[in-house]
Amino acid sequence: MPLDKLSVNRDGFSSKFGIIAAAAGSAIGLGNIWRFPYIAGQGGGAAFIIVYAIFIIFIGMSCMLVEFVIGRRSQRDVIGAFQTLSPGKPWFLSGWLATVTITLIFAFYSVVFGWTLDYLIKSVLNSFSGMSPNEITSVFGNTTSQIFRPLIYTFIGIALTVLVVMGGVQKGIEKCAKILMPILFLFLIILVIRSVTLPGSSKGLLFLFKPDFSKLTGNTILTALGQAFFTLSLGVGTMVTYGSYIKKKEKLASTVVYTCILNSCVSILAGIAIFPAVFSFGISPEQGPGLAFVTLPNIFQQMFGGYFFGIIFFLLMTTAALTSTISMLEPLVAVTTEGLKVPRKKATIIIGIIIALISIPCSLSFGIMSGVKFMGMNFFEFLNYITANFGMTFVSLIFTVFVGWFLGSKTVKAELSNEGELKVGYYPVFMFLVRFVVPVAIVVVFLSGIGVI
Ligand code: TRP
């Protein structure tokens, strides 16, 4: 089908603010608020942040622009995009790999979304009131190891996502992001102010911003790269799909820059909201995944105004999670509606059910299935591991090689410059990064992470 025919009836984002809200909504998620602070804490604070920032600027931004180019040029879903841009060639297989990867990510991410909802309700009901620190710690294990309770919350999270995505790109996704993203920033600022005004908070800031280079190992560097991909929602077709909804007159490069800046701000602010509080209450900063669900509820219990700030924190996590799961569902819906011609509502519901089914073993990994190991990991950890280390990096590698070496310099330049209307002074740098730096960096960091180098 000719490109222009396809794009006429296509739903899409209506405004620049809408695009950035949706893209930033995808990027900003549990990865920023729950994962970033604890991996930065374990990876040497500022030392980790420096490496991570370099990856965001030189690799992440290029990869996001690559995805936008593929999406907007083709006006298609992640599989159809390659069938349109390079018909008869095997590139579309990367779209399949992206689709499988995002399905698995969505399934385990929903489980954490479920815990978040559970903790939001617990906070509203003031369930932690009067508990000792040990009791609060055991709540997390008791909550996640049950069979039905975490599953019900996981399903609620998936259902909320389905409801939004059913509404379509403009009336569902864009509208929701425009409302939720400003609220998210408001919540975050409230928490930052509370945290830095606690006595002894400067120790936390020092921890976050004072580099400890001894903690930088091959593994931490791989974690930083993995986090850069994960936090920018790269390597799974999300940004290809969102890119395909960006109008031809909008500027792709500036959208990337705004999205990455907003995303990095939230990660850093989340760190500032969390570590000063952690230090102020004399708790170890290297808590790991329990940071949000164990350490923080403890702190809220002891903090002046903790009831209120606890609710704000879990509301923040909920909004962050929802705009992200939306961006995991939409690429799958796009593949189904455009590739298989299934109507949107039906596609959304069917995919929601499939994700819910896969999320069951993920949730049970913390309870009755905790003994079931894959390469020494439970099912949840295993999915996290293969998607982060293989799926996303591998897909990004193929996307960049495609745009750098096969799509054609003219096409890429035409798409970035809106058919010659914009100046693209950054183009040679971008192309150099995409052709050489990004692929080499992905391969090197990947090999060192799995211990080959
Ligand atoms: N970026 C989100 C976060 O940091 C997670 C996310 C949303 C995501 N969509 C994605 C991750 C697509 C990978 C792929 O929490």
Describe the protein.
75% of the residues lie in helices and 0% in strands. The protein is an all-alpha fold and 453 residues long. It has a single domain (4-449), classed as Amino acid/polyamine transporter I. The longest helix is centred in the C-terminal third of the chain and has 34 residues, at 306-339. It is globular and about 65 Å long. The model is unreliable at 1-7 (pLDDT under 50).
Which ligands does the model contain, each kind named once?
Answer: tryptophan
What is the percentage of strand-forming residues?
under 5%
| Strand element count | 0
Question: Tell me, what is the CATH class?
Answer: Mainly Alpha
- The computed structural class is mainly alpha
Instruction: Work out the helix count.
Output: 19
Mean of residue pLDDT values? 93
Named at the architecture level, the CATH assignment is: Up-down Bundle
Reported by name, the CATH topology is Amino acid/polyamine transporter I
List segments where confidence is low: pLDDT < 50 over at least 5 consecutive residues: 1-7
Helix percent band: over 70%
Question: How is the main sheet built?
Answer: none
Which outline best applies? globular
Summed up, what is this model?
The protein is mainly α and 453 residues long. It has 19 helices and no strands.
List the SSEs and their pairings.
Layout: H1 3-8, H2 16-27, H3 30-42, H4 46-74, H5 78-85, H6 92-124, H7 133-144, H8 148-166, H9 169-196, H10 202-209, H11 218-231, H12 238-244, H13 252-280, H14 295-302, H15 306-339, H16 344-364, H17 379-406, H18 409-416, H19 427-449
The chain binds tryptophan.
Residues 26-27, 29-32, 102, 105, 230-231, 233, 236, 238, 324, 327-328 line the site of tryptophan.
